[in-house]
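Q: Predict the assembly, please.
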Amino acid sequence: MTQKTVLNALHRELGARMVDFGGWDMPINYGSQIEEHHAVRRDAGMFDVSHMTVVDLHGARAREFLRRLLANSIDKLKVQGKALYTCMLNEQGGVIDDLIVYLLGDEHFRLVVNAATREKDLAWIEQQAKSFGVVVKERPDFAMIAVQGPNARAKVIGLLHEVDRPRIEKLGRFAAAAGQGPHGIPLFIARTGYTGEDGFEIMVPEDQAVALWKELAAVGVAACGLGARDTLRLEAGMNLYGQDMDENVTPWEASLAWTIALDEGRDFIGRKALETQKAAGVQRTMVGLVMDEKGVLRHGQKVLTPQGEGEILSGSFAPTLNKSVAFARVPAGVTDNVRVDIRGREVPVRVVKFPFVRDGKACEGI
Amino acid sequence: MSASEIPGDLKFLKSHEWARIEDNGLVRVGISNHAQEALGDLVYVELPEVGAEVQAGNGVATVESVKAASDIYSPVSGEIVEVNESLADKPETINEDAYGEGWLFVVKISNKDELADLLSADDYAEQIENEDH
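A: Predicted assembly structure:
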């Protein structure tokens, strides 16, 4: 059965083209995906991300549990409201999901996990939580709106109750705080995102999400669909679960080494497998590709390198760059002489460092 | 776009290409407004060579949107006599004016009988109506 967010009727009213996204009926665009992309790079756009799964963890041993569950170190979170991006691994070191965890209290953490992996994530978390006596509580009562772009924060802050404004203004990157929105709507405001731009991801009680969306639209925040969200996150060099990594891929093979904390004596799930793989030498790696010729790199295309074959993971036209970029998984050691098979045509591509775009502009060498 | 906005002089393939019969046995070809809406923003168009011989129902061009690449089939057989070069720099013209400035190529038809196999504007309107439900 297809699920709908509380904003579904509004999207349809706005003329959105709707698609199935992991079992959810979601807007892919409201007219032009490219214009929505530019709105976020140049001004401010908003996305309905209410399909994402919010899970609260409560318990005296919640932190100890997360030391075991997560590949990044929960002990990096010391101040209430701080957030951390991390993978959750299986025993083989494969990625079950990537997620954001917030520290909300001594015995209270909040996870935001992917929509498409909701059921297996909840089952895994509950199974692991049992022996720690941690209570796992899903929060379907929240809708979520991501407001992103160089002017996103100012537009959101302008809508807040004035006593909250200075505090939310000072909110650091990857931190969250409660605040009161228009009509007194209670908000959980996080300075996070999935576009490479500054902005907020805002949790709002479901029954007040439509009101918040309309207030944001009234101050000039453009409605943006998941199509633009995908090209924005790709340009920003951010992985998409299911496309760039899954349970058969380790973080070493998905450019996620920066999220692995091999801190002394912490026995997280998957650690042994990661250490074994690293000691033996990681055979595959994820690289960025840019194509200067016309055409579009797409998921599943074959990549030809002197070291052997690979494949395109996320690939798309990049509206900020006006050419195509991609992530590819290739044999370790690939640096150049790479071609991609585009429907029988072998097209040369360049191997580059990513992100491809930062602060609204092409990165050096792209 | 409602069905009534499909120009009545056009013929269609089920696969959403339109054909406009012009003077001297020339047939101008493009994709329907419904097709451009489904594809989303177009970013790249690969056109046939002028002078190429094409067969009705064969893939002769490719249009790529942000979302997907689609083969474009020729509604009729014949020789390609003109292609829309301006699409190389402005593929979004197809999004803006699918039945006009966004045309793709012109075929000099070799067998006029093939025109009878194409859908009328009304039949095509009915087809996309049914797709939407």
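Chain B touches chain A at residues 37, 40-41, 43-44, 46, 62, 64, 66-69, 88, 92, 95 (CB under 8 Å). Strands of chain B lie at 10-12, 17-21, 26-31, 42-46, 53-54, 59-65, 69-73, 78-83, 105-109, 119-120.
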